[in-house]
């Protein structure tokens, strides 16, 4: 999509802590299912109606995901090639445990029939619950008041709970709750319309291998055919009032059913509690899954919904205490930024075995793969708020280091090459020009380790895990690049693709060269530090990976001699060696319906033009801002902004941040709104396929790195705020080097308070300020000229 100069009207009502819809509409149902999804980093459930949906097929997608649970398939190429990715992995839809179908005196609850007198659905980001309140009149005139609550527990990762309350308003009669676990579930219904939701997996994937049901408890066990993974979904139920309830069960090939019936009286509330758990063989022994899953739900039932709700709220109190951002004067931004942060929490793996998929746990777009999105876009949010989650994201990469070494070997290189997209290790990108060729993923991971280490000083992590990744990636760069005589014997990295996927297989992509340089420099630095501080561990690691001292010298030299493209004529950084020699396109001349170009133009046609899907040089400037002057950023911004289509959702946040730096206030805010409201207002028209997780990380980056102007480095944090005109105030906390710092910004002042930890020096527009515990330092806003 092109840059939007007009903001979209908010789809859901504006509220600082809630997302609320007040109408049920089949036209928007598919989209709303994404927005009202619940997740806890492990389980993700789209916001499908618990009672089922009888609308047209293309207005819904029913799905439940388990982070990292995938099926494997062969990627086939009629025109094959050496080293092409062979094994695809795709996150699959698992047994649907969220079904509760009420039958009201013989009539099934169905919002598409009868009349809806009242409807409201709320995602409450403080409580971590989605609630739905409906007053429904059946075709035969029976009126019921319904109140449903659903959550996936942040404190019990394997657990989801639904409470379903029904009150007969104008009748006495039989009320049945039919609760099911359905193993007959499908993947990828929409294949073919948008390549980005395409997958090697379609239709039914999981086989139900076992099932049982007894009284209120039941389970289904499913297996993948190829990846060898199993899962168990177990359920248990409770009802209030219990008196007079009649329980019956049923089984079908792929389904278990528990029916609870009661003779209901008008004015009385009947509530069914359904406890649902998922356990998989990725985490536990297969033979244990059933026991564990049943134990989880029966235990949860003993505790009861209200205790689980309390735990949820308590967890979120802690989360918001660290992570919240308060924006004064702009409800659109306030709601948007909280939704982004909350969605990231819902979708990010916290177990060191999983990461965050491009669409989180809300849709199977991009096959549930993890990309560089996690390290470059999402990780900073967690580094400065909940660093243990950031640590786990990095541990996930460490787990895949062996696979990355194998991939480097396969491609004829030393060191390690991380896959462009994967779930559990192998390169899953079938289109290598915009896949494997994005070697920058190695440097992105190394950069994330640096960001993490500088902010947390977690040397334990650095020496135990980070260093090995840094050395193997540095090794990879040293092997991939070469000293090229026609380039003044500079160290060049040829035939790569940078972040901008509308330009591929080029020499000396600036982003890649700069980031590889940082990767190697940092590896050299860490090697030196580790040798001094942990000689024993260092020697062990050197032995483990066969590292030679001359290799470290070679990294140093390659970093020093790195070819860093520069155009003397334009005084900008060319994206790569050939970029400036291509035809520049005026994107305003391209008809609106041609965007995103990748769905309408052949790649060759895109590649031969100066046109960018997303920032490349500009992203580099954003990440390494200290290396560039404001004038340099401005010149590059002016050059690349008009040729960027923002066809990638990873684009607008970066423009917002840089626009802040160079004083382009209007751009900064426009791009921010496009970022922070991307999913809530469906800017790209595809939120039905799932959230844009990287962009949500980008929203946090845009507030903190952009408007608050936080510039971190190894020594300190420097704040150079530029609040948008609309904002009266912005406050947030950052965790930094074992301190917790409260930052309160107004348009004319800035306050910094050290809430936890020892005194520390920060910077405000480069001026040093000393923060001491409990004390607040107030500064007048500088009138910065850019
Ligand atoms: C972007 C990539 C991104 C991927 C997954 C693509 O459209 O160009 O940079 O990693 O989406 O979000």
TrEMBL record:
Keyword terms of this UniProt record: Glycosyltransferase, Transferase
Positions that bind substrate: 372-373, 613-614
BP terms from Gene Ontology: carbohydrate metabolic process
Coiled coil: none
UniProt keyword Glycosyltransferase, yes or no: yes
PANTHER family, per the entry: GLYCOSYL HYDROLASE-RELATED, GLYCOSYL TRANSFERASE
Similarity section: Belongs to the glycosyl hydrolase 65 family.
The protein's name: Alpha,alpha-trehalose phosphorylase
